[in-house]
Amino acid sequence: MFVQAIRGATTVDYDKPDEVKLKTKKLLNTIIDKNDLCEEQIIYILFTVTDDIQSVYPAVGAREMGLLDTPLLCCQEMNVTDSLDRCIRILMLIQRPQKAEVFHVYQENAVILRPDIIHKQKQRRSCLNRDETY
Fold first, then answer.
1. pLDDT under 50 in the chain at which residues?
2. Which domain holds residue 24?
3. Less Cβ crowding at N or C end of the chain, within 10 Å?
4. How many domains does the chain have?
5. What pLDDT does 114 receive?
6. CATH number at residue 82
7. What SS3 class is residue 56?
8. Would you call 29 helix, strand, or coil by DSSP?
9. DSSP H helix total and E strand total for the chain
């Protein structure tokens, strides 16, 4: 078995339970889809949130989408001057029978956290689109 880590992040416009849960579910669903995962492959998910998110744990959204047997933990992100507001970050540890490419996901305003990954994904898409035209 190979153990791999997947990162992701998103932001919310408002600290409201429904929005935090919705954006968490959207992020998790995208990570799971892009990485072709099933719940049994997820070892755990660590959520961190900035100190301006206090209405609900992101793990509540994960439980609502059916991740019932996966260990989940929520923590507060360090409060760094001029950092991104209302941000939910994810570190997901997974195991697979064989090593596979990992797709990290950054959504909403969190795309600024890892422009290198966003740029790499755009390049990959443009190469794929070019290949399809031949």
1. 132-134
2. 2-132
3. C
4. 1
5. 79
6. 3.30.1330.40
7. coil
8. helix
9. 3, 5
